[in-house]
């Protein structure tokens, strides 16, 4: 079938940033494991609302997924240096995870009784997975602070388990979007279908624009990537928004992918020239193809990608073409973007001193008046408190970040990634897209997804 379209990536492709993992992204491989930590002498009291570690010194381990600069050792080393200036009694060693093998590494460590003390990731892992399994420490006391009270309500809700416990203390957030190569669209006469000022387009205009770019000779306009879960928030958002479909019900108790709206969207995408279901790539690899000009659009985009300047100036492709970030097309003018929320969780390893030290680390990194801003800035995302302002003021990317804050963050939709059985649903999603890409009946394949994903909910309860 024409719709299963491999773009011939090499196995050595290097990915950048954490833009599309978690629900969020893919990045380069793991760093070497940190060396055994050094003990350091004790110091004075810790910040208000944090719990003082017992003993003269405490060592803790932090495993971090690649959330912007939190996947970079130099950036994290600087943060830990700042922390140790305030708390030399706590030493922190770090291991860097990626979204290809990170989950396996954490799960293997859990099975071997060697789970890290701290993990930086999102609610889908910290709350809906490890927290739901009783492996995490309740962080409710960290929310009983001024900073906790100031957080966006939707963010706090995503970090709270159905049992009332908070298994994540959030640091930063972003709304995922898509992007187009403006130069390619302009040359094809497709910009007439786009409200460039507001970064919006209707479903009808989306398909008209794709057709125009395809007719101009650009065969690979966009890819429904589905080699794995990396960046899957992009394909979900496109499909759900086209005809006002949903991924789950409002209570997050059942999956709704087999709705008429979603079936219509999948059938329309399959039929559209220039949109190819590609089982050879994931979201991070799609970004690389977009940056190098192979694809004319990306479904896996956000502010961190727009500010990336690894290969060319921020906001441009590798050859200097202008990248225009876009809301996903919708039939009702109300786009709902998948959001990313990242923060810290603590594994309950039975050592109260380590748990207390880990809480102290979280409190300092997220809530210290100076360090909190720097910690968010390191992520390349946005603060989870509206009272934390000026994070990117006077930086070279200030205009880009302001643009995303104005046009994209307000469209952040329901954070449904905390549904029980979420890990199974993600696997079922890309498997479903692969089957549709090879000609599978959309109604049959979406029904299979819902059956298997809803069974995962039942099994998790």
Would you give an account of this structure?
The chain has 461 residues and is an alpha/beta fold. The protein has 2 domains: 58-175 and 340-399, D-Maltodextrin-Binding Protein, domain 2 (3-Layer(aba) Sandwich), CATH 3.40.190.10; 177-336 and 420-460, Periplasmic binding protein-like II (D-Maltodextrin-Binding Protein, domain 2), CATH 3.40.190.10. It contains 17 helices and 11 strands. A 6-stranded mixed sheet has the order 2-1-3-10-4-11, sandwiched between helices. A 3-stranded antiparallel sheet has the order 8-5-9. Strands 6-7 form a two-stranded parallel ribbon. Strand 1, helix 1 and strand 2 (90-96) form a beta-alpha-beta unit. The relative contact order is 0.19. Residues 1-55 have low confidence and may be disordered.
What is this structure, in a nutshell?
This protein is α/β, with parallel strands linked by helices and 461 residues long. It contains 17 helices and eleven strands.
Largest sheet features? 6 strands, mixed
Q: Mean pLDDT, as a whole number?
A: 88
Q: What's the gyration radius in Å?
A: 22 Å
Name of the CATH architecture of the largest domain? 3-Layer(aba) Sandwich
What is the count of structural domains?
2
CATH level-1 class of the largest domain: Alpha Beta
Strand order of the largest sheet: 2-1-3-10-4-11
Number of strands: 11
């Amino acid at each position: 079938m024409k719709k299963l379209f491999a773009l011939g990536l090499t196995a050595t492709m290097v990915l950048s940033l954490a833009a599309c993992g978690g629900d969020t992204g893919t990045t380069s491989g793991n760093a070497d494991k940190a060396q055994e930590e050094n003990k350091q002498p004790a110091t004075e009291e810790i910040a208000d609302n944090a719990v003082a570690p017992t003993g003269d010194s405490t060592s803790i381990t932090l495993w971090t997924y690649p959330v912007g600069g939190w996947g970079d050792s130099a950036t994290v080393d600087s943060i830990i240096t700042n922390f140790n200036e305030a708390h030399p009694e706590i030493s922190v060693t770090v291991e860097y995870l990626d979204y290809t093998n990170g989950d396996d590494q954490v799960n293997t460590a859990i099975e071997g009784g060697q789970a890290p003390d701290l993990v930086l990731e999102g609610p889908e892992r910290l709350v809906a997975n490890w927290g739901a399994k009783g492996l995490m420490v309740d962080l409710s006391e960290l929310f009983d602070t001024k900073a906790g009270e100031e957080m966006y309500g939707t963010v706090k809700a995503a970090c709270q388990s159905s049992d009332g416990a908070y298994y994540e203390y959030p640091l930063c957030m972003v709304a995922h979007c898509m992007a187009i190569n403006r130069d390619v669209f302009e040359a094809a006469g497709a910009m007439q279908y786009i409200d460039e000022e507001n970064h919006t387009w209707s479903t009808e205009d989306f398909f008209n624009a794709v057709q125009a770019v395809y007719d101009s000779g650009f065969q690979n306009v966009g890819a429904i990537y589905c080699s794995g879960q990396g960046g899957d928030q992009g394909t979900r958002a496109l499909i759900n928004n086209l005809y006002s479909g949903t991924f789950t019900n409002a209570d997050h108790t059942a999956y709704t992918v087999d709705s008429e709206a979603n079936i219509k969207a999948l059938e329309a995408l399959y039929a559209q020239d220039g949109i190819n279901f590609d089982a050879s790539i994931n979201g991070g690899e799609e970004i690389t193809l977009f940056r190098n000009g192979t694809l004319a659009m990306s479904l896996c985009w956000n502010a961190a990608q727009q500010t990336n300047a690894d290969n060319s100036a921020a906001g441009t492709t590798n050859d200097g073409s202008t990248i225009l970030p876009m809301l996903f097309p919708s039939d009702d003018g109300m786009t709902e973007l998948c959001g990313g929320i990242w923060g810290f969780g603590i594994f309950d390893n039975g050592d109260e001193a380590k748990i207390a030290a880990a809480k102290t680390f979280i409190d300092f990194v997220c809530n210290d008046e100076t360090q909190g801003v720097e910690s968010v800035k390191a992520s390349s995302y946005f603060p989870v408190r509206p009272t934390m302002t000026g994070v990117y003021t006077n930086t070279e990317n200030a205009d880009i970040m302001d643009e995303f804050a104005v046009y994209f963050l307000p469209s952040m939709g329901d954070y449904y990634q905390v549904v029980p059985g979420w890990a199974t649903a993600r696997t079922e999603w890309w498997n479903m897209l692969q089957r549709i890409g090879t000609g599978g009946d959309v109604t049959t394949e979406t029904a299979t997804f819902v059956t298997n994903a809803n069974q995962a909910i039942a099994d998790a309860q």
